[in-house]
Amino acid sequence: MLKIDHVSASIAGNTVLRGISTEFNAGQLLAVVGRNGAGKTTLLRAMMGLVPLSAGTIAMNGDDLSRVPAHRRTSLGIGYAPEDRVMYPTFSVEENLRLPCDVLGLDVTEIDQRLARVLEVVPQLREMLPRSGSALSGGQGKMAALGRALMVGTRLVLLDEPFQGLAPVLANQYAESLRRLHEISPELCIVVTESNRSLLRDLPDATLILERGELVEGEDS
User: Fold this and answer.
1) Longest dimension (CA), the chain
2) Which top CATH class is 26-45+70-220?
3) Where are the domains of the chain?
């Protein structure tokens, strides 16, 4: 589905990704693991068009993503929950969830259906819907960011360090949400980055390991 071919990228003149090649397939729950600074976030940002490539290509179903502006990549069915889980503070949680679909110009019926699916996957969000985006704890913000990514991520969902800083109860709820998502949408590809591999438990189907911007190992979980 998504093919990364000899991708390199630099930030402020420093090479962060070094010739990465891999593929993400439909129906896969994949982990990308590495120390802080290994390049995990940069890899996801490159896939979203937020970091320019200095070499290589990223293609989705054979189409070169370099031809798709960053703000249009969600229209391809790619959802992204960044580590900083930014929520618009003056919007309610429900408005934050609906916003990317509104930007894509989806009709209200389609957005309602997507929201219902998100609440099935992440039921904890239901009671948060009327709250202000600024009224969420860090863990609740990560749950809301997951929900927002799922509103547009119909083919590929990218989750950056979702378990970092979560209390054990919320970490368990987040993991259960990912399991439900895998069951409800078996065709969806889910990519999760983490620094601490143990936080992922038995979730991934496969694991890729990044070290200093290079893939050094790939193994089945």
Assistant:
1) 46
2) alpha beta
3) 26-45+70-220
* Average pLDDT over every residue of 14-31: 94
In this structure, are residues 50 and 41 in contact, taking their beta carbons and an 8 Å threshold? no
Determine the Cα–Cα distance for residues 146 and 150; give it in Å rounded to an integer.
6
CA contacts within 13 A on the Cβ side of 79: 28
- Chain CA centroid to CA 51, Å: 15
According to DSSP H, which parts of the chain are helical?
Answer: 40-47, 93-104, 108-121, 138-152, 168-184
Is the whole-model pTM more than 0.85?
Answer: yes
Q: How far is 166 from 41, CA to CA, in rounded Å?
A: 18
Q: Residue 181 burial by CB count (10 A; 0-12/13-18/19+): exposed, middle or buried? A: buried
207: left (phi over 0), alpha (psi -120 to 50) or beta: beta
The per-residue pLDDT for range 131-171, each reduced to its tens digit, is 998 888 888 999 999 999 999 999 999 999 999 888 899 99
DSSP of 85-148: ----TTSBHHHHHHHHHHHHT--HHHHHHHHHHHHHH-GGGGGGTTSBGGG--HHHHHHHHHHH
Of 187, 163, 185, nearest to 40 by C-alpha is 163
Round the CA-based radius of gyration of the chain to a whole number and report it: 17
3-class state of residue 39 by DSSP: coil
Closest among 122, 140, 124 to 132, alpha carbons compared: 140
Task: Give the N- to C-terminal CA distance of the chain in Å, as an integer.
Answer: 21
Site of tokens 């990308």: 32
